[in-house]
Amino acid sequence: MENISLNQTGDMEGMLLCFPHLQGSCPRTLRLAVIRVIMYAFMLTTTLMTVCGNLLVIISISHFKQLHSPTNFIILSLALVDCSLGCLVMPFSMIRSVDGCWYLGKHFCKVHSSLDMMLCSTSIMHLCLVSVDRYWAICQPLQYRTKVTTVRVTVYIVIIWLISFVFSFGIVLTDLNSMGLEMLTNPCIGSCILICNKEWGIIASLVTFFIPGIIMICLYVKIFHVARKHARVMNERLATVTCNELKNQTTEQRERKAAKTLALVVIVFIICWMPFFVTIVVDPFLNFLTPADIFDALMWFAYCNSVCNPVIYAFFYPNFRKAFKILIY
């Protein structure tokens, strides 16, 4: 974004301002009309796909009893997170990204930034919980039904939501993330940026992305190692299996397929969010040189993750695919 020098009298002649009637207003981002249309079309499409796709997941799991399982209840909560992102965060981010202005006031800016951080951290904690669930299902199958119950999963989900809420709102509302950066966080009227100092850029990224991501990767490496071992054993016993053993092997195959699908969900999440979090960590050490448009582009690329999850379920889960077809048609 081009930097514009303003004199003390607030002479803004020839400029478009976020709030023309207020002295000290931020300048609006000047874009060609065709660029604005393309940006609005892309962001609105992404938002609608996020809301509609995750609503399908929520309705499917809630309505069809064959989808009621501890794993799917975690997916239900994850879909609720993504749907909330599409309803409560992305529409306001869309206007800010296109116009370069925040029209809803300083207080709602803090709420919006807190929700954005909260829903992001809640997503990855849900994916971490899914990884633990798959680990128990594949690596400890005999103990899975006793250790992973609907009640326990519900308790874990509630804890995740509470931790994410306290962590995100606590950081943003107390301005811990921007201590020492007051001149950057309040440059003009109509600005709403979530900016982190060096300490909290590292802490927030470690807590909400890098540490859970490493845990998930380690769990899935263990899962696939065990799955390959089980596959070799199954191939050796294939000629002598009984009906009951065949049924158990079919269940194990289904569990492994579910683990592979959910691993894909994790991989897509990491691809989508990694550039954003790397920027959050690195940018304070570069004196915040990342252009606003680049930061917005990385943020929307991360938002696209919320579109991908329902698509993955539709392509790789037969039960979800059938449920989607029934609901749509």
Automatic annotation (TrEMBL):
Keywords: Cell membrane, Disulfide bond, G-protein coupled receptor, Glycoprotein, Membrane, Receptor, Transducer, Transmembrane, Transmembrane helix
Topology of this chain in the membrane: Multi-pass membrane protein
GO MF term list: trace-amine receptor activity
Family: Belongs to the G-protein coupled receptor 1 family.
Protein name according to UniProt: Trace amine-associated receptor 4-like
PROSITE patterns (alphabetical): G_PROTEIN_RECEP_F1_1, G_PROTEIN_RECEP_F1_2
Subcellular location: Cell membrane
Protein's UniProt keywords contain ATP-binding: no
Domain G-protein coupled receptors family 1 profile: 53-313
Regions that span the bilayer: 37-61, 73-95, 115-132, 153-173, 200-224, 262-282, 294-316
GO CC entries: plasma membrane
Species this protein is from: Chanos chanos
